[in-house]
Amino acid sequence: MQNLEEFRKEVKEWLDKNCPPSMRSGADPSIPVDEVWGGRNAVYKNPESKIWLDRMGEKGWTMPTVPKEYGGGGLNAEQVTILNQEMFAIGAKQPLLSFGIWMLAPVLLEYGSEEQKKEHLPKIIKGEIRWCQGYSEPGSGSDLASLSTKAEDNGNHFLVNGQKVWTSYADKADWIFALVRTGPKEPKHDGISFLLIDMATTGVSTKPITLISGKSPFCETFFDDVKVPKENLIGQLNAGWAIAKALLQHERAFISSFGLGSGMGSGRDLVSIAKKYIGEEDGKISNGFYRSQIASHKIKEHAFGLTFKRARDEGGKASATASMFKLYGTEHNKKRHELMIAATGINGVAWDGDEFDKEEKNLTRAWLRTKGNSIEGGTSEVQLNVISKRVLGLPS
Amino acid sequence: MKLILTEEQEFLRDTAKDFAQERTPVPHFRALRDNNDQNLWDKDIWQEMVNLGWSGILISEEFGGSNFGVAGISVILQECGKTLTPSPLFSTGVLGAYAISNFGTQEQKEKYLPKIVNGEITTALAVDESSHHDPSKTSLTSEKNKDNYILNGKKTFVIDGASADVLIVLTRTSGNSGELAGLTLFIIDSSADGLDKIKLDMADSRNYANINFNDVKCSNQDILGALESGGETVESILDIGRIAISAEMLGNAESAFEATIEYLKQRKQFGVLIGTFQALQHRAAAMFCEIELTKSAVMAAVHGADERSNELQRLSSLAKTIAGETLHLVSNEAIQMHGGIGVTDEYDLGFFIKRSRVAEQIFGSSTYHTERYANLSGF
Question: Do A281 and A223 belong to one domain?
Fold first, then answer.
């Protein structure tokens, strides 16, 4: 195996040569910042966002542990640590945000056929195809397994009819991974299949849902006699529920990272907000009641972060504790945003206009967005059910 | 810093687990309480613990100890906490051993450490003077008189103070109550003239005392650490104590929780197991999460202590806060979920809630440490 110090040197040199200046810390603040999700219809305000994505994608370093034959970086754990350290050292931006990477790729690696892996993984890794998730339906929220979007066997293809809801960014995505009912007569968990569908297929349409934050990150997605090739079935027919659950573990793991203050759009620091809007005396937040609430929250957040670390150090026995991380990560994130808007006072509930600055108006929206965190990917109540049944073994 | 145990620490934990389950299950504590035992801990059991090397875990090989560190002693206390094992291990094996090993002169180490290792003496740390923990509010005076210091004042809630042979006492040589400056620690024989121990009767039926000092005479040689640097020294000792007691409290919580989950799986009402009720399931799941967070906080603090992390104070306050809150929650919920038998003396759960509320106060409550955490975090 290659010497690790040599590898570090190579990574350093490569980053030095290939990471564009605006993708590092200390970038010119006048250059617009892209949220890069890739895909066929991606638009870049800063051309260097695309250059950085292409170069990292070519290396396979957007998914560094995936084998090279599937377009990944083929790195081992130690090498990934080095890559992360060197990227952190220059403040390199993550080149790609992707449901493909966070959710679909891990289950493709586990359940996909050789052809499916070769077809889909490289496009995920390079950011060529943007994916969305077709799980929930109007009648199937927490009781996901009751879903009714049906896929009928029509010889060489499935004919899909039905409706999905809460499909994140469906209006911008190229493909959808969806749960469909292929066995209407089987018990509900045993009649579900995991299907990949090209959103460009005739009969697929989307409609954005406006949320309380005023934004529309989610859509309704409709399937009207959509023909889906048989080779897009992942795993066995009617055996999709196991894949669905495996994917949910990955989704929960990634949503729970919000609670560590590292989630999307949460670069705000509770303490500095409190000091700015409430004031400070001798370095202490001047209102004792706010201060104690913030301290209690910070302590919980600290312990939660340490629990994340402990799980990793123990070798990531993820399945048993993924629900705990989802539950706490999202509940902490909600609490943190409540404390932030409270500390910001009346400006923390600003909506629009020139009397409030941009950060204040964004905070209002970010706070409202967090209300969905403990619902999406399985509600907090569902997580409590999972813990009590699967971890504690309480009877049903 | 990896948040896992080494093989050595796992071995210590397994030994402690066997010992606590076999030699000191909860009925052992119950018997001591029922018999109104003089020390509220058993001398023979303590000697067995000493023979296992536990009193010397924080003491170097030079003085007969094993130097297995805070992680070593903490896994033992956690297991002992599961069965509410009473012993002077915390006051002697943690506080005394750590204080003298780290701040004692060579002479003091030679005089006391081998005796701690072989069980000849037990020690106690006398800090508090009122109903609330606050080392800065020390007003027990140590006045210089030629070559001696004369101690006058009163200490409260001294853990294992009723039986300790040797006391480590926080005194004020100068300055005013409310200041950490001007404090000095002394090591004193508990049979010294003018020293009067009053045994306390506390809800958790453990060994505590208030101690009066009336012209108690000490010499220069009895100072632990440097003169008037006792504030800093005692905080360092207390932080190790806070971490160790947090480990014991974690053990208390784990045990009460486990008993509760077992009960939910066997108690029937309305014709079904009460564990099928979502009203109870969700609260049980929430407790599970709190215990997991506590494990992480305690482990980070334990390793922080052994690695002499510059985050040690913050980690210590983190661990004590979380351990206090978790044990508080679990001891309450355990009783509620057990229903009527939970509030009977015949059942063991009452011991856990009584121990909880006393342990919560030891070396600072969750409130005290939340405040300290905020100060140390710069807000």
Answer: no
* Interface touch B281/A284, C-beta < 8 Å: no
User: Token digits for A80?
Assistant: 């990934």
Across residues A239-250, what is the average pLDDT?
Answer: 92
**Interchain CB contact of A210 with B (< 8 Å):** no
Is the pLDDT assigned to residue A261 strictly greater than 60?
no
Is the CB of B271 inside 8 Å of chain A's CB atoms? no
Same domain, A140 and A15: no
A361 lies in some domain: yes
**Residue A35, SS3 per DSSP:** coil
Say which residues have a Cβ less than 8 Å from residue B5's Cβ, sequence separation at least 6: B13, B71, B75
CB contact, 8 Å: A343 with chain B? Answer: no
User: Taking CB atoms and an 8 Å cutoff, what residues of chain A touch B375?
Assistant: 284
In this structure, the answer to whether residues A230 and A274 fall within a common structural domain is no
Whether residue A155 sits in one domain with residue A48: no
What CATH number did the domain enclosing A71 receive? 1.10.540
pLDDT at A216: 86
| Confidence class for position A106, pLDDT limits 50, 70, 90 | very high
Which domains occur in chain B, in start order? 7-121 (1.10.540.10), 125-228 (2.40.110.10), 234-376 (1.20.140.10)
Interval A119-143 mean pLDDT: 95
Segment holding B325, helix H or strand E: helix B312-338
Q: Which of A303, A381, A385 sits opposite B318 (nearest CB)?
A: A303
User: What 3-state DSSP class applies to A286?
Assistant: coil
Which A residues, 286 through 305, put their C-beta within 8 Å of a C-beta on chain B? 291-292, 294-296, 298-300, 302-304
Give the number of residues written for chain B.
379
Q: How confident is the model at residue A145 (pLDDT cuts 50, 70, 90)?
A: very high
A171 in the same domain as A137: yes
Q: Which residues of A touch B282 (CB under 8 A)?
A: 381, 384-385, 388
Q: Which residues of A are catalytic?
A: 251
Residue A182 in domain: yes
Listing DSSP states for B156-210 in one string gives: EEEETTTT-SEEEEEEESSS-TT-STTEEEEEEETT-TTEEEEEE--TT---EEE
A274 touches chain B (CB under 8 A): yes
ipTM, two decimals, is 0.94
Same domain, A155 and A251: no
- List the domain range (segments joined by +) for residue A320: 245-391
**Same-domain check for residues A218 and A258:** no
Question: Of A238, A263, A283, which residue constitutes the final position of a domain?
Answer: A238
Give which of B258, B281, B371 to mutate to test A binding, by max A Cβ within 10 Å: B281
- Spatial CB neighbours of A265, under 8 Å, sequence gap ≥ 6: A362, A366, A369
Q: How confident is the model at residue A311 (pLDDT cuts 50, 70, 90)?
A: confident
Burial of B113 (0-12, 13-18, 19+ CB in 10 A): buried
The string of pLDDT tens digits covering residues A150-170 is 999 999 999 999 999 999 999
Flag whether A108 is in a domain: no
Q: Which residues of B touch A300 (CB under 8 A)?
A: 293, 322
Domain count, chain A: 3
Tokens standing for A335? 């609490």
B248 Cβ neighbours under 8 A, 6+ residues apart? B77, B78, B80, B81, B90, B359
| Residue A95 · residue A87 · CB < 8 Å | no
Residues of chain B with C-beta less than 8 angstroms from the C-beta of A309: 3, 296, 300
* Minimal Cβ distance to A310: which of B289, B296, B370: B296
Query: Which of B4, B281, B377 is nearest residue A388 as measured by Cβ atoms?
Result: B281
Mean of all residue pLDDT scores within chain B: 97
- The verdict on B268 touching A (C-beta cutoff 8 Å) is no
Answer whether A281 touches B (CB < 8 Å).
Answer: no
Tell the residue number behind the tokens 């004031």, with chain if given. A279
B343 touches chain A (CB under 8 A): no
Contact B300 A306 (CB under 8 A): yes
Are residues A377 and A306 part of one domain? yes
